[in-house]
Design a protein that fits this description.
Chain lengths: 257, 371
Amino acid sequence: MMDINDDFLELGGHKFSSRFILGSGKFSLSLLEAAIKDAKAQIVTLALRRVNEGGSENILDFIPKDITILPNTSGARNADEAVRIAKLARELGCGDFVKVECIKDSRYLLPDNYETIKATEKLANLGFIVMPYMYPDLNVARDLVNAGAACVMPLGAPIGTNKGLTTREFIKILIDEIDLPVIVDAGIGSPSQACEAMQMGCAAVMANTAIATSGDVRAMAKAFALSIEAGRLAYLAGLGEVSEIARASSPLSGFLE
Amino acid sequence: MQRIDESLMKRVLSLRESYEYERYGKADVARALKIQRVDIEGLRALLSPAAGDFLEEMAARSKSEMKRYFGNSIELFTPLYISNFCDSNCVYCGFSSHNKISRLRLKIDEVKTELENIAKSGLKDVLILTGESAKKRDLGYIGEACKEASKLFSNVGVEIYPLNSDEYAYLHECGVDYVIVFQETYSPEKYAQVHIGGQKMSFAYRFNAQERALMGGMRSVGFAALLGLDDFRKDAFATAIHANLIQQKYPHAEIAISCPRLRPAKNKSEVNAGKVDERSLFQAICAYRIFLPFANITISTRESAKFRNGIIKVAASKISAGVSVGVGTHSDTGKKGDEQFEIDDTRGVDEIYTDIRALNLQPVMSNHIYV
């Protein structure tokens, strides 16, 4: 039997036993630490613009030291701005990971794939472990691979909608064709949707709104952790084939043997 | 004065003119609240008198939209008035050029001291304000003040007289990232009646300020009608439409809406500040949130602490704190300029911070990064 304890998510040479990336943007800080623990997350995203230098509360103080911080370039409208934010994050001691977000639509917050490719190439050349948030497009994903991305992070649905895998077919294509971890990002609204993404073969799931806006943040964080693990295990086990016709578990022609 | 294409303004004014809110009934409101993405017709219903019976339903929908876009976060900021000189004569405003008040323009080193004192509170977002006086408060002066502000604050905005796009570009270079311009009323007729002198008399130039600001490179623009100056339902409707159309035309633009009501001001006893009651204000703010769920909505100290604590749980995503609307009031220089209007909520930054936490919300000081 497959031992899930030997199963790791690898990003830029780093290994993670958890495949749940937790967003920190919508939490109350007092709940964030508990949510990280219940989610068993090892990677937590951080919008650099939210880092309150010298203020009364600093989000960095609420993220345990053994957690890998994934600063994002939230607020960047183009590649140049994303690169500058990433450099600032590194100067602030946030490490070499960076989630590239290039967004120039403030209504739907859809990523600009063209600028994302440019930012990824520049940041990879600067030694960053680049995790680009993207609209699921195979050609773009191939360009991101060539640009030096450590993974691709297609959206399941627009940010914050909790609508789940509305881009399911396109994410499946990326999983089939791209030789990098495919991490579904944005739109995942329930543990069952996260589980489905993992069963499909996504390498990890990122979620924020679904947990931060739930009635019980800690319970929902735990539910996501369990569902992601279940989905991963199911994927590794290999799902049974889907058939249009009935196939009896005890074959009807069995008596002929 | 720079002129730009006025088709957007004509559309807003035409929509405002044709808005007959008495036509809308309960069924229209109920229908609007069921629509996933509320359209202009839905907005009309939500701002109608009929929606007054649906405040609880509107609040629930509004809260849900706000959670989705902003989570638990409430941004904090404070205004800093650096001058109360004004060339414009507006009948409702304490800064009006014809109003006899104590006038003051801070020197740059005084601005710096005020900024340093504000920064000690932990705030990282400051809005620089002046009266509408291009003559006495030249742009270079405002630019210098903004440069000082950007050294201490992660987000700097201006609420000053409207500028041309190249002037906005200059302020952007000085560290300004957002611009707020209140249209006051979207009725050109009423506008002419209450703005009787100075640059502010030009309705169209003011209307197009946000667009010129975006052309000048600003990231965020803010809109508002001064509710109570004219028909507040029509003005609230026009405000939301204006913001929506600008965002559609400039998709990268971050949109903010303020919700000011008329307030009493020194020597302005004739101003009727009670025209729009709190229930109506609440309805308008919820309608803004439902129609433009992604927009920042600011609630100012014109409102009571009780109202502000209530509305940030439901619809408003940004709140001012430690506010003074006078000049030179953040330092002990001995010189003070009179206030623009009387504020209601006098809580300091710490108190508001604590109150936000007590509401299970997350006060956010820094939500911007200069790149």
